[in-house]
From TrEMBL:
KW Membrane (keyword) present: yes
Localization, UniProt: Cell outer membrane
Organism annotation: Chitinophaga ginsengisoli
Family: Belongs to the TonB-dependent receptor family.
Mode of membrane association: Multi-pass membrane protein
Stated name of the protein: TonB-dependent receptor
Record InterPro entries: Beta-barrel_TonB_sf, CarboxyPept-like_regulatory, OMP_b-brl_3, Plug_dom, Plug_dom_sf, TonB-dep_rcpt-like
């Protein structure tokens, strides 16, 4: 870490020294009318027949050294402004304010509209200022020079946003203002997309390559023309659009993960793409010929090399009527994850947590992320325009896991002794999202505007032939020497699991806006609606393979030496993950927007009707095999914006929103994620969550890219949905349920400040949430131990009290061609798993993360860049806030300290490096 901080300072210092050698001429370039700084202004200085050139910095400032005292000619040019010319007398250190005057309005509008860069920092900032919602954006240029490769990792830089990470440590789901991923929806160009997940609605953001975006928006409040199921907010990916001039961008990179010295690979090529039951006639009995053993034929690869490729090209044709943009991205990376997990339970004698087993897990994960998108737009005239957008996103994941666990109780001589279970697991998973949108914008008559969209989207996930091999052995102590003696590895069983899911949306949107004037106010009247038909299909099969006689076969590392027989050749056709669901959502809204002097008011209401039906393959005797839910919601909202002056504004907003249960949560089932620490069961009585949301934000934009945002928010939730550990019979399950009422409020601070080429970007969010639920308390009595229900108030699952980001920036695209960023983030502790027992919730420990990126221009159109992620090698850690007592455990246990919080889990991911080149035309 110290080396990278010093490197950042050194790069900045070397560059800064180029500007600080001698006295000269400096100052500020501003708009003559508004006083706004104009970054990137081209300035020519001519003295004694010699010309020198420079550009104004990110805050509009400029400085040139090495001039002699005397008179010089100065000339300044900026797109859309008249050329500035003057003679200036230089006397040691001279300062000057250059005021540029806009060209005539008609010409200025043509120039700005034709040349504006939708991927620039300035455009993203202006978009946030003009929005009629509370919103924060990250520009394409900001993404390009950041350490991040996926949309999920980009979104963590935005104020109030934290991440839930996947097994390999990369970001996967966004948590906005402490609201779990279930309270957020994902948009592509403002259109909601389905999820490839076979259980849930929320979309994994790690499937999207970040270099396909023009802008990433996090929307924190809603207006009536936006879909209403976003209590936490929404993530909108604005994809690359056709530039005004022909453009080509390409990049290639290679990288290395520091901890992948022995990366395990396997061959899944011979595996079936679908289960034997799905590809054969009814009644087919699978045999061992359906299950090749190649998945267990593994080998080690030393330091596999990650790779990245990207290409985009676009421009405008036919006298600027036709816009074309084509872009593609491919990323291939490797992760080697070390993990340790403790099984825990609650002591019925005193209610304290105690550990029961310890399991070591090693993961080798290859992830291939790719995306293609095309956008065509045709402008018939100023009143009629049509757009066609097509996108395909793909995420392939190959994962090998080896785990070994041992009991810590039952009279064992100590950790690592007694009966030990080993298991191998391999799977290949492919997630895909396809979206095509046809959109039109039409001026029907004077002041009456219509826009419409026809959308087809489909998300799929196929995880065929997930293969698991379970072994048992034993370790005993030699009576004479005390040394550990391991018994042979005997086969226990093998399982082969097939999961396949598709989620298809057919949607239509129609909106009308009528522009009018009432007195001195501009009033826009809007009405519209949408309809979506969603079809979801999930299939699942699990086959048990058992060793043939003799059943105590020894495993020598080569699975071909062992023999199995299929125990359930028919598969698991009655598993609850075999289900079909349809959901129809219809909506209509009315909205008015009033602009008058310093006031802007947007308000109205949205009506949504949801009709969900499902049919599961569970036996007829199971409650909830088939079911349906229909409900209606009226969702009002209002936003008032008051401009204090040209640089300052206040926003006050209110909106009502809902959160629908996930599909799999309402379908009866017993199972879930094989990686989960506890298995899940469904709850067909689950209700939707409703909420009222309030925001107040102060905005200050002093000059150029500088800004200060400060706000407060409050959310009141009815029937929030959370998962809790509950005992059902003799087993403990993870169950979704409604938990009465909850509140969530907090404070957000967000700022960026540039000092010519240097910048600081920082944000901090404090969030406090509270929900009261019933817990079980064990206590001692005169006759033994008893229990009772008590209420406990705690934070919402996934909510961190403190979230902060700090980035140190150096940005000079003109003279030196250097961009560098040192990004640091902190997330405080949060509840990972809710327990049914008092004070036994499992918490994720607070963590800090640091990343670094640098880009340097080598030639006119060639650049070299580097990215370093997870510099601090920050682990993922879980614990229970109960002191570890060692109750029932034999011997010392690693990671556990007497009197300290009970340790549950630790995953370590390592540092990742990437080095590449770019070409820009």
């Amino acid at each position: 870490m110290k080396q990278l901080v010093l490197l950042f300072i050194l790069l900045s210092g070397i560059t800064y020294s180029a500007y600080a050698q001698k006295a000269g001429l400096g100052g500020l370039v501003v708009d003559k009318r508004s006083g706004e700084p104009l970054p990137g202004t081209t300035i020519q200085i001519e003295m004694a027949g010699k010309k020198r050139y420079l550009t104004s910095g990110l805050n509009g400032e400029f400085l040139i050294k090495g001039l002699q005292n005397g008179t010089c000619k100065i000339e300044a040019k900026y797109i859309g402004y008249q050329k500035y010319e003057a003679e200036v007398t230089v006397n040691n250190q001279t300062t000057l304010t250059i005021e540029l005057e806009q060209k005539k309005k008609d010409l200025a509008e043509v120039n700005v509209a034709g040349k504006r860069d939708h991927g620039s920092d300035a455009y993203a900032l202006q978009n946030d200022r003009k929005a009629n919602v509370v919103m924060n954006s990250v520009s394409a240029r900001n993404i390009e020079v950041s350490p991040d490769l996926s949309v999920a990792n980009v979104v963590q830089r935005i104020s109030g946003v934290t991440l839930e990470r996947s097994t390999n440590g990369e970001g996967q789901y966004a948590i906005i203002r402490g609201m779990d991923k279930r309270y957020i929806y994902t948009l592509v160009n403002g259109i909601k997309i389905p999820s490839p997940d076979n259980k849930n609605r929320y979309v994994p953001l790690d499937i999207f390559p970040a270099d396909l975006l023009d802008r990433l928006e996090v929307i924190k409040s809603l207006t009536p023309n936006r879909e209403g199921d976003a209590i936490g907010g929404a993530v909108n990916m604005v994809m690359k659009d056709a530039p005004s001039q022909f453009s080509v961008k390409a990049n290639a990179a290679a990288g290395l993960a520091a901890n992948t010295s022995n990366f395990t690979t396997f061959d899944h090529g011979a595996s079936l793409d679908r289960s034997p039951r799905a590809t054969n006639p009814v009644g087919y009995q699978a045999t061992m010929t359906d299950f090749p053993n190649s998945a267990f034929s593994r080998s080690d690869k030393s330091h596999p090399i990650a790779s990245l490729f990207g290409l985009s090209l676009g421009g405008r044709l036919l006298n600027n009527k036709l816009g074309v943009m084509l872009a593609g991205s491919y990323q291939n990376n490797y992760r080697d994850v070390k993990s340790v997990f403790f099984g825990t339970e609650t002591d019925m004698n005193n209610g304290n947590a105690k550990v029961t087993s310890i399991e070591s897990r090693n993961y080798s994960i290859q992830q291939q992320r790719s995306g293609l998108h095309a956008k065509l737009d045709y402008k018939f005239n100023d009143d009629h325009k049509i757009n066609l957008y097509v996108a395909y996103m793909n995420l392939n994941k190959n994962e090998f896991r080896f785990s070994t666990d041992t009991s810590l109780q039952l009279g064992r001589p100590g950790p690592g002794f007694g009966r030990i279970s080993n298991s191998y697991r391999t799977y290949h998973d492919q997630q895909q999202i396809f979206n095509t949108t046809l959109n039109g914008q039409n001026e029907l008559v004077h002041h009456l505007h219509m826009d419409w969209s026809l959308v087809y989207s489909k998300a799929t996930d196929n995880r065929p032939d997930e293969a698991s091999l379970h072994l048992v052995t034993g370790v005993s102590k030699d009576p004479a020497t005390g040394a550990a003696v391991q018994a042979p590895l005997n086969l226990d069983q093998s399982t082969r699991e097939f999961q396949r899911n598709s989620d298809e949306d057919k949607s239509a949107y129609l909106n009308f806006t009528y522009k009018s004037e009432i007195g001195k106010a501009d009033v826009d009247w809007s009405v519209g609606g949408m309809y979506r038909h969603k079809s979801r299909t999930s299939t699942y099969d699990n086959y048990n393979l058992r060793p043939t006689n003799p059943s105590n076969q020894v495993y020598d590392g080569d699975i071909s030496h062992n023999t199995f027989a299929v125990f359930n050749g028919e598969g698991t056709s009655d598993n609850a993950l075999n289900y079909d669901a349809t959901e129809n959502v219809g909506a209509a809204y009315a909205m008015v927007k009033i602009e008058m002097k310093k006031f802007e008011l947007t308000g109205g209401a949205r009506f949504e009707n949801t009709d969900l039906n499902w049919q599961s393959a569970v036996p007829q005797t199971v409650k909830g095999k088939t079911g349906g839910i229909t409900y209606y919601d009226v969702l009002p909202s209002a936003l008032l914006k008051y401009s204090l002056d040209k640089k300052q504004a206040l926003r006050l907003s209110y909106y009502s929103a809902i959160s629908r249960p996930n599909f799999y949560e309402v379908i009866p089932h017993n199972g879930g994620d094989p990686d989960a620490d506890y298995q899940e069961i469904g709850n067909p009585n689950l209700k939707r969550t409703t909420a009222n949301n309030f925001d107040l934000r102060y905005e200050y934009f002093p000059k150029a890219l500088d800004y200060v945002l400060a706000g407060v928010f409050y959310k009141h939730l009815n029937n929030p949905i959370e998962y809790a550990l509950e005992d059902v019979g003799t087993n403990t399950y993870y169950v979704p349920d409604n938990f009465g009422k909850a509140s969530n409020y907090g404070v957000e601070l967000d700022m960026t400040k540039y000092f010519r080429w240097f910048g600081i970007r920082a944000n901090y969010t404090f969030t406090h949430s509270a929900i009261t639920t019933s817990k079980i308390l064990y206590y001692s009595t005169a006759t033994g131990t008893s229990d009772k229900q008590v209420d406990q108030t705690r934070p919402l699952q996934g909510q961190s009290a403190h979230v902060a980001n700090l980035s140190l920036l150096f940005k000079d695209d003109n003279k030196v061609g250097l961009n560098a960023q040192l990004a640091m983030g902190y997330t405080s502790r949060r509840i990972n798993t809710v327990s049914q027992f008092l004070d036994n919730d499992i918490w994720q420990k607070g963590f800090a993360q640091m990343d670094f990126s640098v880009e340097k221009r080598l030639a006119k159109r060639w650049y070299v860049y580097g990215k370093v992620n997870n510099i601090l090698n920050t682990p993922y850690q879980l614990e229970i806030h109960q002191p570890y007592t060692g109750s029932g455990v034999v011997g010392a246990v690693p990671f556990q300290e007497l009197g300290k919080n009970t340790f549950v889990r630790k995953d370590t991911y390592g540092v990742n490096y990437l080095l590449g080149v770019k070409f820009k035309l």
